[in-house]
């Protein structure tokens, strides 16, 4: 049995995480590997239900602490029921966002401390971290153009927060990547999907060599 791996894609809104997750999964499957593609918040029935509660624009929404707890609860279910069992049987798990999104959004964006976010993650998911985290970066005008093409003016509750909020999120992601160079690979996500995919593959090969 080949060894299971856990790869997460991170970054701001519309940088191309889902697109690159799909291309990576296709290329791994072409090599005969079992691949599980999944996303956060979500990936299990319970976590998808929490996703709806978190991202729906109906109602008054959540305070920063309640929001962080809900993300951690969704992640706990996802880790226990899907991610850990898949990696344990030798599959590659390719996940669109993981705990670094909580650190960047609920931490960097909303002001919770990194220690508090990681404490919730220790309680919920025993602190599981990906083998490699690909941080996709593009200039804000490029991601805005990609989102306009995909969604028009539609945004979920968190995606719809202002420019300053998303600026703090982007700065937090950059900080984590600088602080943890062994776990993060920063990939320039400008250019065609195929060009970015080639950079992602090279980054993963290097990180997991
Ligand atoms: N390299 C690329 N060049 C041009 N368009 C792209 C590229 N990558 C993705 N796109 C397009 O940009 C849009 C956003 O991409 P995608 O949905 O993969 O981003 P995302 O980071 O997963 O978004 P979200 O943050 O909403 O989950 C999609 O319409 C996708 O087809
Ligand atoms: C996992 C996670 C996500 N978020 C935010 C980031 C996005 O605004 C949405 C998810 O939408 P996507 O289109 O699937 O990227 O949720 C967050 O704030 N904290 C998290 O831990």
Structural account:
- By secondary structure, the protein is α/β, with parallel strands linked by helices.
- The protein has one domain (5-208): P-loop containing nucleotide triphosphate hydrolases (Rossmann fold), CATH 3.40.50.300.
- Helices cover 56% and strands 13% of the residues.
- The protein is built from eight helices and five strands.
- It has helices at 17-30, 45-55, 64-88, 99-109, 114-125, 140-151, 163-179, 193-208, and strands at 5-10, 35-39, 92-96, 132-137, 184-188.
- It has a five-stranded parallel beta sheet with strand order 2-3-1-4-5, sandwiched between helices.
- Helix 2 packs antiparallel against helix 3 and helix 3 (64-88) crosses helix 5 (114-125).
- The longest helix is centred in the middle third of the chain and has 25 residues, at 64-88.
- The protein is globular and about 50 Å long.
- The model has no long low-confidence stretch (mean pLDDT 96).
- The structure holds adenosine-5'-triphosphate and ligand LXEULUCI.
């Amino acid at each position: 049995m080949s060894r299971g791996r856990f790869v997460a894609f991170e970054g701001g809104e519309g940088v191309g995480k889902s697109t690159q997750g799909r291309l990576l999964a296709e290329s791994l499957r072409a090599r005969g590997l079992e691949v599980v593609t999944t996303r956060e918040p979500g990936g299990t029935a319970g976590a998808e239900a929490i996703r709806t509660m978190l991202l729906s624009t109906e109602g008054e929404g959540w305070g920063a602490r309640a929001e962080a707890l809900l993300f951690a609860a969704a992640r706990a279910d996802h880790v226990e029921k899907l991610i850990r069992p898949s990696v344990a049987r030798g599959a590659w798990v390719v996940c669109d966002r993981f705990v670094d999104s909580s650190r960047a959004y609920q931490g960097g964006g909303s002001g919770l401390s990194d220690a508090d976010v990681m404490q919730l993650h220790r309680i919920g998911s025993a602190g599981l971290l990906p083998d490699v985290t690909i941080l996709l970066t593009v200039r804000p005008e490029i991601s805005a153009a990609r989102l306009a093409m995909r969604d028009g003016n539609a945004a979920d509750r968190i995606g719809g927060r202002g420019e300053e909020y998303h600026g703090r999120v982007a700065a937090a992601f950059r900080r984590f990547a600088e602080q943890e160079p062994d776990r993060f690979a920063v990939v320039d996500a400008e250019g065609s999907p195929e060009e970015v995919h080639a950079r992602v593959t090279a980054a993963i090969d290097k990180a997991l060599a």
